[in-house]
Each structure stands twice: as C-alpha cells, then as structure tokens.
Amino acid sequence: QRAFKQMEKLVSLYGPEVIIWRYDPLVFFNYQGRLETNHHLATFAEYLKAINELDITRCYTSFAFLYPKVIKRAKYLPLLEWVEIEKRVKFDILREMVELAATYGVQVYSCSNDALLQVEGIKKGHCIDGRLLNQLGSERVSEKSAPSRADCGCTHSIDIGDYVKTICKYHCRYCYARP
Questions:
Q1: Which strands make up the sheet holding 80-82, listed edge to edge?
Q2: Model-level pTM?
Q3: Which residues partner with 58 through β-bridges?
Q4: Residue 132, class by beta-carbon neighbours within 10 Å (0-12 exposed, 13-18 middle, 19+ buried)?
C-alpha cells in the first residue's frame, strides 16, 4: 500500500506516462520440499487494479537470473534451493499475465530477456528509454543503446544509485544489487 501511495504521488507530480511499474523478478524456489514463488496471479490482478486507477500503462517483468552470487546466498538459507523453471512454464505464466494486463489497458514488457518476446503481447523493455525521456522532457538525452547486460534495451545513462552506502531495506535474497 505504501508503494501505491508513492506511485500516486509521483503520478500527481509527473503524470502516469513516466511511471514504469516493475513486477519482477519472478523467483521460483524449493522450500521444505515444495515449489514456491513470489508470483501469484491473484496478487498481480490486485496490483493491476491499483495501477489502472493511476492510469499507469506499462509493466516490466522478468524471471530471476540465477547468477553465481545469488546461488551462493542460498547456502545461508536452510531448506531453500533456487529453481530455474522450464521455458514453456515461463511462457504460460507470461501469457496469463499479458491477458490479464490487457483487460486493464496495461502493456507487459520484458526486461533483459529477449527469449520472452516469443510470447504474443510481450514487448522489449527499455527501463532507461532515451526516446521516451526526449518526448517528455525539455533537455535532450542520448537515445543510443547502452545495454548493461545481454538483451538489455536501455539507452546510455549514469547510475545515480549506490548499492553499498544506500542499501535497499528489503534485503531480498535474490537481488542482484545486494553486495
């Protein structure tokens, strides 16, 4: 609810067209012998309803990349094992998400995974989108592609964040940015 209040404030200040809602990464893991996930279609639907009320129309999603440091962290989590689900299962999940999102006028974008573009209705994401920034702002910015990893669609930017001094308070175990 706090995040939606923050989005509401951002929409009131800057408009819904500048907001990119991220519903990612989708994570799957075995916990005490059961396959678990942070993705639940009913929860996604609740979020879509709130997003729709704010006139936000873009949802970026991805499946967690199981980088070595993410896998290594699982050693410190008893009874937890990350799971890389099959591509067809990912595609089924995305089809449901795209269909549901469309009923709310929301477009789903893939972040850094062009294989997901095989699912009808998914578009390539540009989290840092120079073309959009130039449409919305008065100062010109680069529209030159400068991906930070494979399949990234972002344009050239400078990261103003700091993953060491300003660590996110959520401490998600699968987060790539955690030191």
A1: 34-37, 28-31, 80-82
A2: 0.87
A3: 107
A4: middle
